[in-house]
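User: Here's a structure from my thesis project, written as structure tokens. My advisor, Dr. K., wants to see whether a designed sequence matches the one we expressed. Can you design one independently, without my sequence as a hint?
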């Protein structure tokens, strides 16, 4: 793409541009860019009926640019949106992330619900990851799960249980266009049709015990959410999670970024093409029967072997209780009693929640 002159005037009002969006062949001034961001989120919400008037929305926040931008945009668009922060026990990184979320909530006069994985469930993500136990990078203590895998599992569990206990209608996450394109790329490389089927801007609550989950930022690129934060003065956590090194999705992002540099709009066309022209072909890919976990009551798959249904989070929690009793790491919170760690009721996290705002 040599010899191309960058656009210096806003394509909407002709004032001096502050950002160029090559995938749209347009540049924007500050005010028009903020209008663009709000309109993209509004389009996402309306296209997939993500939110309805009166919905109570719980926004999963990490202190990073995407989640704080999403929370701010929903507030600006007059949705009833509280934040949810889950402390993962990743040293100073988690401390700074939690503080960033609390400062944002205080500056906007909104409610932040805080949970802590170690205090409420007896383990941290570094403990669950542990030292590598196989030749594959990142495999750890929690039954062979990588740190990113057990982190995602824990977040999904706590987000769902907290929303249920708090009476929320929807959980919103800050997955942007880059995130969704990278996940779709990885799933397509493996032809993981079950995961591809679940990858959609909206996951409906198909049965009691599940909360509707939405991704209102899927139309905005990572660079755009960062620009939104800079232009609106949102002080977000810039550093990446220290456990993300070697993450496969990061490598997929690098591959797609190289393609985007040569052909602007590649990620957009890949993701939107799938959503609009191919996703319906996988409607029957995920036909697992669901039931309630025998230990916590959350929704899980019916075991194929006829065994008692126990969700992945409860299995992980039980393994960690045993491992931490055998060799508790120095400086970490003590584990819960093994029986409690294996079978705490779904409403337990809500009782321990710290709510500010």
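Assistant: Designed independently from the structure alone:
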């Amino acid at each position: 793409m040599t010899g191309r002159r960058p656009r210096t005037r806003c394509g909407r009002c002709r004032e001096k541009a502050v950002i160029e969006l090559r995938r749209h062949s347009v540049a924007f001034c500050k005010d028009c860019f903020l209008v663009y961001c709000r309109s993209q989120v509004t389009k996402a919400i309306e296209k997939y009926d993500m939110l309805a008037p009166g919905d109570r929305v719980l926004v999963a926040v990490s202190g990073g640019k995407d989640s704080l931008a999403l929370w701010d945009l929903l507030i600006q668009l007059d949705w009833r949106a509280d934040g949810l922060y889950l402390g993962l026990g990743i040293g100073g990184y988690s401390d700074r992330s939690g503080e960033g979320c609390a400062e944002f909530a205080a500056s906007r006069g909104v409610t932040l619900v805080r949970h802590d994985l170690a205090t409420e469930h007896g383990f941290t993500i570094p403990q669950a990851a542990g030292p590598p136990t196989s030749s594959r990078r990142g495999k750890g203590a929690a039954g062979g799960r990588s740190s990113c895998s057990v982190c995602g599992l824990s977040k999904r569990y706590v987000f769902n249980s907290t929303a249920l206990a708090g009476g929320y209608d929807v959980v919103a996450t800050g997955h942007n266009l880059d995130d969704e394109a990278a996940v779709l790329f990885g799933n397509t490389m493996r032809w993981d049709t079950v995961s591809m089927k679940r990858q959609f801007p909206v996951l409906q609550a198909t049965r009691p015990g599940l909360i509707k989950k939405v991704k209102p930022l899927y139309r905005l690129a990572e660079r755009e959410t960062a620009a939104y934060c800079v232009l609106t003065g949102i002080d977000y956590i810039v550093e990446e999670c220290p456990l993300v090194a070697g993450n496969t999705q990061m490598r997929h992002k690098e591959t797609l970024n190289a393609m985007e540099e040569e052909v602007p709009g590649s990620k957009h066309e890949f993701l939107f093409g799938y959503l609009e022209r191919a996703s319906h072909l996988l409607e029957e890919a995920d036909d697992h029967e669901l039931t309630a976990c025998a230990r916590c009551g959350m929704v899980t798959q019916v075991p194929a072997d006829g065994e008692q249904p126990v969700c992945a989070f409860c299995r992980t929690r039980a393994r960690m209780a045993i491992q931490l009793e055998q060799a508790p790491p120095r400086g970490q919170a003590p584990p819960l009693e093994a029986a409690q760690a294996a079978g705490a009721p779904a409403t337990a996290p809500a009782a321990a929640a710290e709510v500010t705002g």
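When you compare it with your expressed construct, this may help: Confidence is low (pLDDT under 50) at residues 133-139, 328-351.
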